[in-house]
Design a protein that fits this description.
It is a single chain. The chain has 13 helices and no strands. The protein has about 240 residues and is mainly α. Helix 1 packs parallel to helix 5 and helix 6 packs across helix 10. The radius of gyration is 21 Å and the shape is elongated.
């Protein structure tokens, strides 16, 4: 079983594994682009820069108890397999009910989409795990991709914050999932501008009664635990197909 530190070393073998935003956030006072590029291109300096970035990502976080062994094992497997395929498979399972309808009516051109046929069959076999409400047929492929990332984000949200904060620097599907779980699309070292405060709502003398029915929850609003549970399931399937 690998430790957290060993997993981080596996996730970040070199500076190329870090997002462009994170690299740009290092030493913001250094405005010399040529010097920054030279540092990135010099192995020893790049290794120092990478170590500095990883240390900065967790510098303000408290120590946490030892990471769950099963979670570490799953993370180790995700680092060595086709994570995009695992996420896509999870998205297919999440939308399996609509997938079954589209497949039965030949409404999907599966060869042109690029989904593995075995993954589609796997999702249909696990149709009982599908909880997503239907989306428009034309946006189904995109919805599967978004939900796959959401499933991966729900699973990675169970990891300790120190591990997630570091993985958010990663230019990988796991990094994308960590940033999605944190509600950001950029590396954690990039500071965003504060949003303008919303204007205060007008007070009403009488309450307004709503005549509109409750909206159907989007896939992202449904139980996170169910999304997270799809990752180990789909990971086992993908590894069995390898």
């Amino acid at each position: 079983m690998q430790t957290d530190a060993q997993l981080i070393a596996q996730a970040f073998p070199d500076l190329d594994a870090v997002t462009d935003e994170a690299r740009a956030s290092w030493a913001p006072a250094l405005h010399d682009t040529a010097l920054r590029d030279e540092i990135c291109a010099t192995p020893k300096l790049a290794a120092w820069m990478l170590a500095d970035l990883l240390a900065e990502a967790v510098s303000d976080l408290p120590d946490e108890p030892e990471t769950n062994a099963d979670l570490l094992l799953t993370l180790q497997q995700l680092l060595t397999c086709d994570t995009d395929r695992v996420a896509t498979c999870a998205g297919l399972v999440w939308h399996a009910n609509q997938l079954a309808r589209l497949v039965s009516t030949n409404a999907l051109a599966l060869p042109t989409i690029g989904w593995d046929t075995g993954d589609v069959r796997f999702a249909l076999r696990h149709r009982g795990r599908g909880m997503a409400p239907e989306v428009s047929d034309t946006s189904f492929v995109d919805a599967v991709a978004r939900s796959g990332t959401a499933c991966l984000a729900a699973w990675i949200a169970q990891a300790p914050e120190r591990l997630r904060a570091t993985l958010r620097l990663s230019a990988s599907p796991l990094g994308d999932a960590c940033r999605a779980a944190a509600g950001t699309t950029v590396a954690p070292l990039i500071l965003s501008q504060p949003a303008d405060p919303a204007p205060a709502p007008r007070r009403r003398l009488l309450p307004r009664l709503s005549r509109t029915p409750a909206a159907t929850p989007a896939p992202e609003a449904l139980p996170q635990h169910d999304k997270a549970s799809l990752i180990p399931l789909c990971l086992a399937h993908v590894e069995a197909q390898a």
